[in-house]
Amino acid sequence: MDFSQVHICVILGTRPEAIKLAPVIQTLRPVFKTTVILTGQHKEMVAQVMDLFDIQSDRNLEIMKPKQTLTQITCGTLEGLEQVFTEIQPDLVLVQGDTTTAFAAALAAFYHRIPIGHVEAGLRTDDLFNPYPEEANRRLVSQITQLHFAPTLASVENLKRDGVRGGIYHTGNTVIDALLYVSERSPKCDIPNLDWDKNRVILATVHRRENWGEPLTQIAKAWLEILEKFPDVSLVLPLHLNPVVREPLKALLGNHPRIFLTEPLDYAQLVGAMQRCYLIMSDSGGIQEEAPSLGKPVLVLRDNTERPEAIAAGTAKLVGVETAGIVTAATEILENSTLYQTMASIANPFGDGQASKHILKHLQDFLVAKAIYL
Q1: Fewer Cβ close by (within 10 Å): the C or N end of the chain?
Q2: Where are the beta strands (DSSP E) in 292-362?
Q3: Is the pLDDT score of 65 beyond 90?
Q4: 374 has a pLDDT exceeding 60
Q5: Which of 222, 263, 216, 224 is nearest to 244 (CA)?
């Protein structure tokens, strides 16, 4: 089969999607006719990732609006892709993860009867509103997908339990492909007045919708207590662009001499920060997957996680969003070097950096079978 004549459309809108799809795009482009479409959900942050991986987009729907709602993202993506799909008529559409872009893009492809491949399929918390709207998004995408690329065996079992149609494949997580690509280049993360070697540095990130409001306040208070308790600890906190997140954190943490609030780090800087920090505290799903490859324990600032493999393996610990619980967990790992070393030395349960190659192979097999049946 001449795969160069097969047209695959890859759609992304947020920085996590760009990071996790970048190695897939790099792998597909020499083999297939590959069109990359940006929705514009995260404009500047996606552009940084595309530049880092030397990937050019072919279309940009430019749906980004100040304080846009989930409805606006969904409608803008559907309307934009309707026009694009009618024009280019791809043979297959790839989406990633559980963003509103992924859900809307998959729905648009379904409306045009285009087969869908779902990268990072099968994550579940079994709580429809936590995380919101991600748990619903990924479940909805699974119902209309033909190719499910599951990052772990647990994700495979989730999909089988849900009775989804189509092929289910264990590929590993493409974020490890991306992480290794960047980390091998020894990226820097220079932050004014921060000496990475002087203190133990906690790298912190927080942004999830379910942590807005009181949970965010509880988390910030926990960080203040931790730094009061451990004078040799500093904290680096890249602020999310959303004012709902950044403004309360600036108000609560902005005057502490050992808290370094920064603008969002580009992906290379983030990898550099992960390499140099002592400990990570985050509500990010991607960081739970990446950190074990760099030997960094993670305290997960959430009440549940769709990545239980990290908790089961021992590379991460779920600590919730209440001040007391966060301080207790951080104290334990900062005082117990044996516990720290144990968590830091466990192999990454999310893959070895070959996920994109596995996805390519499964796509080729699917297209050959599809051609035979046609």
Answers
A1: C
A2: 298-300, 316-318
A3: no
A4: no
A5: 216
Question: What is the CATH number assigned to the segment(s) 3-172+354-373?
Answer: 3.40.50.2000
CB of 320 within 8 A of CB of 283? no
Q: Among residues 7, 29, 200, 209, which one is catalytic?
A: 209
Quick one: pLDDT band at residue 223, thresholds 50, 70, 90?
very high
Handedness of CA 316, 317, 318, 324 (dihedral sign): negative
pTM for the full predicted model: 0.89
Sequence letter at residue 49: V
Residue 120 among the catalytic residues:
yes
162 is catalytic: no
pLDDT score of 373: 55
Question: From the candidates 7, 240, 258, 362, which is the catalytic residue?
Answer: 240
Active site residue 62: no
Does position 97 have pLDDT exceeding 80, yes or no?
yes
pLDDT of residue 261 exceeding 90, the answer is yes
Question: Residue 137 — φ and ψ, nearest 5°?
Answer: -55, -50
Choose, from 120, 283, 290, 309, the residue flagged as catalytic. 120
- Quick check: do 3-172+354-373 and 200-344 share a fold? yes
Query: Residues 118, 139, 170, 207: which is the catalytic one?
Result: 207
Is residue 309 part of the annotated active site? The answer reads: no
Choose the catalytic residue: 17, 98, 303, 309: 98
The model's confidence at residue 316, banded by pLDDT at 50, 70 and 90, is: very high
Average pLDDT, the chain: 95
Which one of 42, 118, 124, 134 is the catalytic residue? 134
Q: 200-344, superfamily in CATH? A: Glycogen Phosphorylase B; (3.40.50.2000)
List C-alpha distances in Å: 362 to 9, 34, 63, 97, 313: 16, 16, 32, 18, 27
Q: What is the pLDDT of residue 371?
A: 83
Q: What residue segments make up the domains of the chain, in order of their start?
A: 3-172+354-373, 200-344
Catalytic annotation present for 256? no
Q: Which two tokens stand for residue 258?
A: 């050992």
Give the C-alpha separation, 305 to 343, whole Å.
18
- Pair of tokens at residue 13: 């809108």
- Give yes or no: 335 in active site: no
